[in-house]
Amino acid sequence: MPPTSALPNSPRSTSSQSKDASTCGRIRARPGSGVVSGALFPSTYSEAAAALEAHPSAVVVAGGTDVMVAVNDGSRQVDRWISLRRVQHADHFEVDGDSVLVGAGTTFEQILGPRGAALPALAEAARTVGGPQIRAAATLGGNLATASPAGDSLPALACYDTEIQIVGATHDRWVPLTDFLIGPGQTLLGPGEVIAALRLSSTSGAQHFAKLGTRNAMVISVCSLAGRLDADAGIARLAIGSASATVRRAVDAETLLLDGAPPDDVGAAVAEASSPIDDHRASAAYRRHALAVLGSRITRWLRNSDHG
Ligand SMILES: Cc1cc2nc3c(=O)[nH]c(=O)nc-3n(C[C@H](O)[C@H](O)[C@H](O)COP(=O)(O)OP(=O)(O)OC[C@H]3O[C@@H](n4cnc5c(N)ncnc54)[C@H](O)[C@@H]3O)c2cc1C
Predict the structure, then answer these.
(1) What residues are in contact with ligand 1 under a 6 Å CB criterion?
(2) Region for residue 70 given its phi and psi (left: phi exceeds 0; alpha: psi -120 to 50; beta: otherwise)
(3) From atom 22 of ligand 1, which residue's Cα is the shortest distance away?
(4) What is the ipTM, given to two decimal places?
(5) Which one of 37, 108, 145, 221 has the minimum C-beta count within 10 Å?
(6) Of 45, 46, 66, which is best to mutate to test ligand 1, by the most ligand atoms within 8 angstroms of its C-beta?
(7) What gap in Å lies between CA 27 and CA 30, rounded to an integer?
């Protein structure tokens, strides 16, 4: 499938390029709110990118579960929104053999539904995100753009060798997830660019996600680990969350997982691959210890799983 035709609303598949950004969607003024003076409602991602190019200080909003926190606590001022809520096919979902194309506007709640059957590790991660209200609104695109080291979708996406479709007003490009995430809060998105879709290139085999938090629900992860094993295809993936600046593959541990090494050895290699920090949620030493435990546990789950 050629990249530019990945989504029905990608730049070359629409006539939106000729539209002026100000004509996409309605502008809703909310006089007196003190925060929002207007909002644009593009109907394609390329229109959204054109709107962003025309209004560089505008803020893109999808589910609003990250950006509204900053607005409400006063740390972010917004004079114009570019809402993605009316982008057509934003929650596109298409399975093509081993590869899955997912629209950036797909919510965690949707991943928990029938779609999750194709992506068990991502579904397990989705189940741990916030509560039902958050999962109903929060999108994969928002989780990616926020680029928090603790973003719960990111380890599972790394296990699927995910590529991100970045769309501008007149161009699009695909980049590997590991290149897309530059650091905490930093991505490859340039001015006038938005995320349109994710291509999960390889999804076969047994797969699991495990997250450690200070309680069982509604919690930012202390550390997390996603794993995938398709021994017949020679594929092993282990990706660490919340224990380095961005999601990180534990490559040596993956080799041990594939070679049948003892689970504790795989776990030790996972911990070795991390570079956690001390913060208010946990010490670096605790995170390393926890990752060794998660690595050992996920190794057992993957080897005993029905999916494998
Ligand atoms: C109570 C609560 C609990 C939470 N729990 C978790 C949790 O357990 N795990 C977790 O990972 N996260 C959690 N979050 C954070 C948040 O829900 C997720 O990061 C979510 O995926 C953000 O998606 P969104 O659509 O709401 O993003 P928004 O808030 O709409 O946007 C977030 C950022 O991404 C940008 N953006 C959004 N979509 C695009 C796009 N398509 N292209 C370019 N830029 C875009 C926005 O401009 C903004 O900067 C929680 C948040 C809250 C408030």
Answers:
(1) 59-67, 69, 84, 104, 128-130, 134, 137-139, 141-143, 145-146, 151-152, 189, 194-195
(2) alpha
(3) 142
(4) 0.99
(5) 37
(6) 66
(7) 10
Render pLDDT for 131-156 as a digit per residue (tens, 0 to 9).
999 999 999 999 999 999 999 999 99
Residue given tokens 């596109």 in the structure block: 92
Distance, in Å, from the CA atom of 79 to the CA atom of 86, rounded to the nearest integer, reads: 20
CA distances from 131 to 91, 100, 216, 267 (A): 20, 26, 11, 30
Supply 173's token pair.
Answer: 């490009």
* Cα angle: 93, vertex 161, 189; to 5 degrees: 80
**Domains defined along the chain, listed by start:** 20-83 (3.30.43.10), 93-200 (3.30.465.10), 206-304 (3.30.390.50)
